[in-house]
Amino acid sequence: MNEVTRIPVGGDQPYDVLVGRDLLDALPGLLPGADRAAVLYAAPLKGLADAVADRLRAAGVEALTIEVPDAEGGKRIEVAADCWDRLGAAGFTRTDVVVGVGGGAVTDLAGFVAACWLRGVRWVPVATSLLGMVDAAVGGKTGVNTAAGKNLVGAFHPPVGVLADLATLDTLPPADLAAGLAEVVKCGFIADPVILDLVEWDPAAAVDPTGPVCRELIERAIRVKADVVSGDLRESGLREVLNYGHTLAHAIEKVEGYRWRHGDAVAVGLVYAGALARLAGRLDEATAARHRSAVAALGLPTGYAADAWPDLLAAMRVDKKARGSRLRFVVLDGLARPAILDGPDDDLLHAAYREVSA
Fold it and tell me: What is the rounded CA–CA span in Å between residue 354 and residue 45?
């Protein structure tokens, strides 16, 4: 029997994240009253997108499939504009919906398209990557990248439900699955240390999408994010802790032209955040060192090019967490005790980076 876990996300517009296998039959029930649905997908997932469209049509919903560029190449305003043109040509109204089938990049784009069309229509992410399940699809943050940086243009627009179909992970490349676990490890450091225990006890089980350990890690990470965003949709306070490790990670992605996997960049960002907190006198040596060992156990990178520091620092200064000319970093004052380091000295930032220089 296929067990489905429902994880509630609260706030002004509550919804559930459904975790299980073969969940497409649950999709029409999330979209009452819809006449049309736009199904956004990247080429590698055409088969699943067609299955989603067929399921919607069987439920009496007209389905329009829209192929978008794969990965971060799809998170561009030009791609969103093309999607809006397609919605307009199809006569989409306020009662119609957008469905994003794919990983974090596709669901970010789909949510942004939905947020802007007619100033907001319903949408559902069908997350097909581990990263999408635990991060991008939950919380209502949508957006696209620009030349200035990652996710600097976007909107807060919660979905009406999320499908985290574990069966889609069975064919996910191992490197992509491991990269998604970087966001899971992040949740372990900021809120749920049992996640770290599970990863460290059996890293092989953590990256086995068919086993119970991987599912438990996914559900625990979703619960961490659900708890945080339920109390802070628009990142006005508590939600900022979810950016742990992301200030450097986003800078790496920008310097790399978004060719690095997001999770790989987050892995390096986590090691950096641990070093920064230790050097600032905020975090003990053992917990700081655990950042490196936890991501290394999953085969994720722990360092980046030493000569990239000037470009990385410049990129961090336009990070959306900055306040004017002052950088802000989420750090730890202890395991599962996230806090803010506001305006650290450049020498301290560079010293921490030297500890992750490859």
Answer: 40
Q: What is the pLDDT of residues 270-326, one digit of tens each?
A: 999 999 999 999 999 999 999 999 999 999 999 999 999 999 999 998 865 555 568
Following DSSP, what letter does each residue of 187-250 receive, concatenated?
HHHHT-THHHHHHHH-HHHHT-TTSHHHHHHHHHHHHHHHHHHHH-TT-SSGGGGGGTTHHHHH
Which residues sit opposite 65 in a β-bridge?
39
> May I ask the CATH architecture of the domain 5-171?
3-Layer(aba) Sandwich (3.40)
Q: Where in the chain is the domain with CATH 3.40.50.1970?
A: 5-171
Tens of pLDDT, residues 10-28: 888 899 999 999 999 999 9
Q: Model-level pTM?
A: 0.91
For domain 174-354, give the CATH number.
1.20.1090.10
- Report, as residue numbers or ranges, the catalytic residues: 119, 141, 183, 225, 235, 239, 243, 246, 250, 262
d(CA 202, CA 43): 34
